[in-house]
Write a structure and sequence with these properties.
This protein is an alpha/beta fold. It has a single domain, classed as Rossmann fold (3-Layer(aba) Sandwich), CATH 3.40.50. It has eight helices and nine strands. Strands 3-2-1-4-5-9-8 form a seven-stranded mixed beta sheet, sandwiched between helices. β1, α4 and β2 form a beta-alpha-beta unit. The chain is globular, with a radius of gyration of 18 Å. It starts with a helix and ends in a 7-residue tail after the last strand. The model has no long low-confidence stretch (mean pLDDT 93).
Amino acid sequence: MQDDVHRYNRERWEALVEADALFTRPMLGLDAEKARAYLGLERLGLPGDLAGRKVLCLAGGGGQQSAAFALLGADVTVLDISSGQLARDRSAAEHHGVDISTVQGDMRDLSVLGDASFDLVWHPYSLTFVPDSRIVFREVARVVAAGGHYYLMCANPFFAGLTHESWNGEGYTLRQPYADEVMTSYPDQEWVYDRTPPGRAVPAPREYTQTLGRIVGGLTGEGFVLRLLSEVRGDDRDAEPGSWQHFMTVAPPWLEFVWQLHPGLPGD
């Protein structure tokens, strides 16, 4: 799928790798205990015994989750749009002495992967990089085995495009309409480049709003059952208003879901 959305996302992520942005850095200090704590499987209610289980890290390159799952004995495949991100997954796997498979591709087209081939699809923040989340959900439903799980972290639909820079002296002003497929952009947070500023200009995030109705309706329509919903938020009530820490305390910027596939249920 080589449309403008694909090309823009690929260009941005290759630039982020070159800039050594926070979420492109492989985790090289893991062991099994640290990997389990990092993934938080118990907190999420996901099976803890991963030995031999097939895991897909979807749009999740960078050498972080893939290394953690492999250290816990999972059979790991990473699909990502960025060749640079996938190179970091391979680097992390070599460092830890584990095996993973890497595939360069778009989360909207998983045709290279077989039907019902994964016990768990792990999808970190990236859903808003494409206009229509339902295309992704349809692909995920095909590659997950019956009874398998889909972990999804995404922007809180009610606060998409809102950051600490929207502070107006009394609160954070919402300006984006609550609708599907509205393109939004905002500056990268300072913590993205917490080591050194990027050497060349990195294309700004280009994201698309997804309503909660489309996310939930799209997944239940594919036969998924919701097992967990968690708000990712801060808890620093003394943070300075207008700071990122204060914003996270007032407006949880992210959601985590755990879904389980049950084909044949009403709506499938």
